Amino acid sequence: MSDRKEFHDLVDPDVAHDAIESLELAPAPETVPLAEARGRVLAERIDADLDVPGFDRASMDGYAVRGRDTFGADEADPVELDLVGSVHAGTEPEVEVGEGEAAEISTGAVMPDGADAVVMVERTEEVGESAVAVRTAVAPGDNVMLAGTDVAAGARALGPGTRLTPREIGLLSALGLDEVPVRGRPTVGIVSTGDELVRPGEALHSERGEIYDVNSYTIAAGVEEAGGEAELYPHAGDDYEQMERLLVEAAEECDLVLSSGSTSASAVDVIYRVIEERGDLLLHGVAVKPGKPMLIGELEDSAYVGLPGYPVSALTIFQTFVAPAIRDAAGLPEPQTATVRGEMAVRERYAEGRLRLMPVGLLTDEVGETLVYPVDKGSGATTSLVEADGIVAVDPDTEYLDAGEAVDVRLFSPDVRAPTLLVAGEDDPALSRLLDRLDNPRFLPVGSREGLRRLGGGVPDAAVVAGPVDRDVESVDLGGWTREWGLVVAAGNPLGIDGLADLADRDLAFVNRGRDAGIRASLDAAIEELAAERGASRPALTESIRGYEIGSKGFESPARAVARGNADAGLGLRATAEKLGLGFVPLGTESVRIRANPDRAAKPGVEELAAELEGAAETGLFASLAGYESE
Amino acid sequence: MSDRKEFHDLVDPDVAHDAIESLELAPAPETVPLAEARGRVLAERIDADLDVPGFDRASMDGYAVRGRDTFGADEADPVELDLVGSVHAGTEPEVEVGEGEAAEISTGAVMPDGADAVVMVERTEEVGESAVAVRTAVAPGDNVMLAGTDVAAGARALGPGTRLTPREIGLLSALGLDEVPVRGRPTVGIVSTGDELVRPGEALHSERGEIYDVNSYTIAAGVEEAGGEAELYPHAGDDYEQMERLLVEAAEECDLVLSSGSTSASAVDVIYRVIEERGDLLLHGVAVKPGKPMLIGELEDSAYVGLPGYPVSALTIFQTFVAPAIRDAAGLPEPQTATVRGEMAVRERYAEGRLRLMPVGLLTDEVGETLVYPVDKGSGATTSLVEADGIVAVDPDTEYLDAGEAVDVRLFSPDVRAPTLLVAGEDDPALSRLLDRLDNPRFLPVGSREGLRRLGGGVPDAAVVAGPVDRDVESVDLGGWTREWGLVVAAGNPLGIDGLADLADRDLAFVNRGRDAGIRASLDAAIEELAAERGASRPALTESIRGYEIGSKGFESPARAVARGNADAGLGLRATAEKLGLGFVPLGTESVRIRANPDRAAKPGVEELAAELEGAAETGLFASLAGYESE
Predict the structure, then answer these.
(1) Rounded CA Rg of chain A
(2) Architecture of B57-145 per CATH?
């Protein structure tokens, strides 16, 4: 560890780009069947090796002749030729046309030997059974599509580096090729580290602090999207021998090895040592946020890049530094939709002295222009993976990005599109159904209070607000509903919980919601009322409720805690209690309203939302949601 | 056949769109492994079924405590708690924290039961071995990341219709899902008709008039690109029973059946009868060029669409009418790069009284704007498949599109890009190598004369001109080379052909090039000279050369005819003779020049070409090309 380079040697991001480019990923070309060639890139030029069509083809119904025999023929003075047979399309000519001879021929048929032109049938007349009178002169080549007219043998058909789309597949078909030499796809081994990581689909032991491995499949999908082939390797622990064996195995089998997944400093240390001792460490530490601890090196003639552990950081560094190298190796251009230009929706301060790859979300304004806002959840959150659409690179010396300033966003995928509607606020099961009816909406379950705050800040198109509101924000009410809220208790209410007073008076374990939740505001209003009834102070009352202070984020979380037996009562909805088969003690009914940003009320996504809301009751939005009513 | 609807009942293209939409393609949803889910579309909403993280997690190194026990603690008046054990990251806590107790805890570790807050280690001091002094008050929840903070169980994670990109794969991983419910991909059966069609890779009998089947793989690639699964069925002949069996089999196995490939009227008739007798013919004949004879119907509960036979027409009708229906069924949006806007490079007249789907090529002007020009090869040509980039829909009542007019081009694939360089003119092996060194160039082998004509018309960026030139076009000479031309004869020249005079004086079968070829102009100049020497007329001389009048298109075609034994001599290059192992009788040396459109001389693609040309000799462009010299 004494020789470990320190992060104060952070290299410039351009140096990191160059280092990755210097690693030769390019795999050997391969040959694939034509049916699997779409999307691949030609490894070499394809010259036509045959003529298309491959034969001189009659392009009219008529008579195949030697053109010279018709010279001078016209209506007044026809030439009479001996009829020697006939040729039909799709058959091999059995006749030969000599001087003074003709053969009947149909469109598409092969020109018989000796003939060099076709006289169209309208300018001829049969004379008995064995001769034809030709009433026009034809030059050699007339009404004949010569072999090679479409594609001539020897001609350059497709160049190296051509991306094969359906039309190129068509040309290759015409040339009779059923397999094609294409650029190889670089193979990318993904090594996931960290004892706490569990593969999706396997049992998770939360009690041991296990979490699902997010990075492996995310980065694998990114590799495939960039034109590589991803190979997942089993998890490695922090043990040197095991890590070395795994990394060397991956390096021997793949063109590039990525490690990712661990936030564990000791695992990173072990990898660092393996690369340095067994391979060649090119650089460690890049002046970029996130991704500072990036490693770039070589191992067993393969390239190695170590990605950060947090999912958004890992994907950011992958898309910025690694995906371009994979595309280059595969011969693919950067997708045209890899970046999008938009305007900052808000001002964002920055002055950190190194390049910042800032995760941002997209939305559209009322005229369809793209707006860009920072997604500020901390790089540790998985949800910011889907709340961020891409990254804006902010220069080290940029102090702030002003609202309205144009920025280029590198999307997390060329398939990412700005949501048609951005809504923030109270999570609610009817809202979920409403969103299901819209095309590509985005909802941020930040609670009513935070939703309103953000609406006031100008980013979301609309906020979902439940319960009493202590803040006024200019908005257009699009409609809403009411929902019954109260205490979710164990099925059958075995503790006989009767109401709010029991929470204060009995030693019950309660699970609350966070302060931004509208339902929490409804609870606080009810507590206020109870305190007033009792002539007590509100703090005194809340202090007597065990669990009051800890607010959980999810709207079902309190009920789920009750279902697990971890709590006696949880703040929630009658609909949630019914869904989870639990008991319910009603405390009231609250209103849920959707309030739109007035500037965006005419935006198509908002109008679509308003229209769905308008007919919500009739279209069964509240069906089987206990305690719900349209308002 | 008496009940066959006539083409004069042509329906409006919108009716055809509606008819295809009315056919229900949508296949049943399916479940796919997470590793194969990229690019698919969620069939239903995914709500989180677990909390992420799944446990309350210490976010600091320190002591897990009950917050209430620390109330009032400060530097001056610490609270002393009993130390009951320790908890490390990745392990299950073995202690429980009761009133007045604390447990040592590390970052990322699971909070032990009873504790609700963490005091950071810096604000504590161990007191002996079994107690710790806490010098600050913490509220319940302080320094704890609650279970579900990232994603809360019960929350809406992803909506139905979400396209799965790497980031969504990441969120699904976090939720532990290893398989995902996605929209089914519609299966599309492709039935190819016509006895003359042969699958690529199989032997082609040109002498019987066979050609390779272009449409099957082209349309199959289009189906896959649109999100469907293509299934190729064996060729059907024109026999009713056989065609019926095949169509019914395809309809039973697929959501949609496309027939395509035959230009044979009788095959189309047979299909028409099968659909009408066994299924339901919705419409026949659409007012669109190309594609008039389109059939739309139903068969065995599957949809059926009959595409035109010519490749460009088939792909045009597929992309315009069928691909949108496949995408809808798969739940995929239209790709953002499906269309591009450009300016007409030339004026194009039109007045045909029905919608025209005009194949066009793209190029870019000197400032990178997209220019659009009609590709005019007749819909029968396979090469126009790769010379056209897409289609412009021209309304029936449009009389002309003016040069400079803005048009929308529907690309033949979202992966199609405008070439960086458009060159037209003389085909040449050194040129092919030169083009191989450029990124995405396009070359149209139209011959020197036609290349110059087009250069004058303003479409190509450059023309390749060989031999003597009879037309002057303003241009910038980018450079060139010389090449030796003459007569390609059988290996060893067994007929002892000595020169041009032999062609005129002996009965030799000669294969010429077309009038647009520069090498033909060189030949004609040499004939002129010979005629002058002999005091003969040029026509008298050419008339005595058998084959003079028939010009083949490909630059290797005459030599290949000699190689096949079909001719005694062919007009060609020494380089071609050497490549094909044939004999060569030199007639002269001609210059090949690349001449650029003066308006585009500063365009990057042209500059790149000029730079490659500049260093051509040094970089081995002419290596092993016999008879080539840089000029």
Answers:
(1) 37
(2) Beta Complex (2.170)
* In chain A, domain spans: 7-26+185-330, 30-52+150-182, 57-145, 339-418, 423-630
Question: Residue A399: what residue type?
Answer: E
Assign domain A423-630 one CATH number from 3.40.1170.60, 3.40.190.290, 3.40.190.10, 3.40.50.80. Answer: 3.40.190.290
User: Which of the four CATH numbers 3.40.50.150, 3.90.1200.10, 3.30.450.40, 3.90.105.10 does domain A30-52+150-182 have?
Assistant: 3.90.105.10
Contact yes or no for A55 and B207 at CB 8 A = yes
Nearest by CB: A150 against B169, B222, B382: B382
DSSP secondary structure letters along B298-310:
EETTEEEEEPPSS
* Cα dihedral across residues A531, A532, A534, A536: positive or negative: positive
- Structure tokens that stand for A518 in this block: 């509208």
Residue A297 has pLDDT above 80, yes or no: yes
Judged by CB atoms closer than 8 Å, whether chains meet at B215 and A176 is answered as no
Q: Which residue has tokens 């359906």?
A: A166
Give the minimum alpha-carbon distance from A370 to chain B in angstroms, rounded to a whole number.
14
> Pairing relation of β-strands A79-87 and A131-134?
antiparallel
Please indicate if any CB of chain A lies within 8 Å of the CB of B518.
no
Rounded to a whole number of angstroms, the distance from the CA of A592 to the nearest CA of chain B is: 17
Fold of B7-24+185-330: Molybdenum Cofactor Biosythetic Enzyme; Chain A (3.40.980)
pLDDT score of A88: 84
Percent of chain B with pLDDT over 70: 97
- Is B155–A445 a contact, with Cβ atoms under 8 angstroms apart? yes
Predicted model pTM? 0.91
Q: Is B577 on the interface with A (CB under 8 A)?
A: no
Q: Name which of A89, A173, A207 is nearest B218 (Cβ-Cβ).
A: A173
> Do residue A222 and residue B166 have CB atoms under 8 angstroms apart?
yes
Topology of the domain comprising A7-26+185-330: Molybdenum Cofactor Biosythetic Enzyme; Chain A (3.40.980)
How many CB atoms lie under 10 A from the CB of residue A600?
Answer: 22
A116 CB near a chain B CB, below 8 Å? yes
pLDDT value of position B261: 57
**pLDDT beyond 80 at A263:** no
Q: Which of B140, B413, B427 has its CB closest to that of A550?
A: B140
For residues B490 and B485, what is the distance between their CA atoms, to the nearest angstrom?
16
Q: Give chain B's residues under pLDDT 70.
A: 1-8, 261-267, 351, 377-380
Helix (H) or strand (E) holding A216: helix A215-225
How far apart CA A136 and CA A61 sit, in angstroms, is 15
Tell me, yes or no, if A621 comes closer than 8 A to chain B by beta carbon: no
DSSP three-state, residue A215: helix
d(CA A136, CA A119): 8
What is the Cα gyration radius of chain B? 37
Tell whether B200 lies on the interface with A, counting CB pairs under 8 A: yes
Contact B265/A at CB under 8 A: no
Using the Cβ of A308 and the Cβ atoms of chain B, whether some distance falls under 8 Å is answered with no
Task: Over range A369-395, report the average pLDDT.
Answer: 84
Burial of residue B367 (CB within 10 Å: 0-12, 13-18, 19+) is exposed
Instruction: For domain A339-418, give the CATH superfamily.
Output: MoeA, C-terminal, domain IV (2.40.340.10)
CA distance B622 to chain A (A): 17
Query: Hey, is the C-beta of B245 within 8 angstroms of any chain A C-beta?
Result: no
Assess A214–B contact: CB distance below 8 Å, yes or no.
yes
Give every CB contact of residue A615 below 8 A, 6+ residues apart in sequence: none
Interface of B with A in 169-188 (CB under 8 A): 169-179
Q: What is the pLDDT of residue B377?
A: 56
Q: Scan for tokens 């984020």, then name that residue.
A: A553
